[in-house]
Amino acid sequence: MQIKYFIFALSTLLLISCGGKKDTPVKLEKYKVGQIDQIRGVARIEPAAKISPLGGQSAGQVVEIHVKAGVFVKKGTLLVSLDQALDQAQISQSEAKLLTKQERIHALEAKVAAIRLKVNIADTEQKRDQQLAKAQAGTQKAAFDAENAYKNLNAELAIALADLAEAKALLGETKSEINYAKKLCDNKNIYAPSDGMVLNWDIKVGQTITVGSKLADYAPAGDLIAITEVDELFAMQVKNGQKVKINMQGTSNTLSTGTVVFCSPFLSKKSIFNDRADNLEDRRVREVHVRIDQPKAVLIGSRVECIISL
Description:
By secondary structure, this protein is an alpha+beta fold. The protein has helices spanning 2-19, 85-134, 140-186, and strands at 38-47, 52-55, 60-65, 72-73, 78-82, 189-191, 196-201, 208-209, 214-220, 224-231, 243-248, 254-263, 268-269, 284-292, 303-309. 37% of the residues lie in helices and 28% in strands. The two termini are 76 Å apart.
């Protein structure tokens, strides 16, 4: 019996000693922003000069697309042609009128030259008749008639010169009409606004477009940038000149390196890829632009991960 009590007492002591033992506390350090040495953020690749919509100044039917999407072109390269049949017909009609008016001007110039010759002859004759009349070798009537003939020819010359001036003015109007028609016709051609490339076409051959219709997305030549956003908690840690790794999103595969070239001077709401309806966070962010060192390693419009070294 005593042995049983001894075993029970020993067991009780062991349980008390084990239950009373405490775990050694783990020392936790406070989280400090200053200890962060890099910031990660999702970014979108864009041209530094921004993607711009390409539009047309005239309405019409697309007859030819001269450049494929993704091909680099120089400023002024013909990209798209619209139907110009009606415009060309108007130009041809105006050019025919121009030829007619040019012929009229030639005729009037010949008429003016002929009248000038007659005026010179009449002037000589009226001076001669006046001298004869003064010397009483001729009659006053002959001198009077010669003077009237001279005056009439001068009047005819003035009328012919006025007709010539009017014809030249009409010729100038016709030339202006042709120039205007040619400009309207040329508006049916869409040219590259700068060096760059068409990213995608929103039209196809045979489609009729209206004035101002979006034809394509155009990327001007120049640097590519990654646009990312940094949470307000780390906003003051980012500065121009900091080095950046551009990784494929969700991997450690580095596509390129880059440099921070712009930090927004103000905080704004999240905007990049903020397309989720359940995104209820109201934290502010700072927009950051990173110039990419190897532009050919990334695609415009793609999502990447920026790792900014602080």
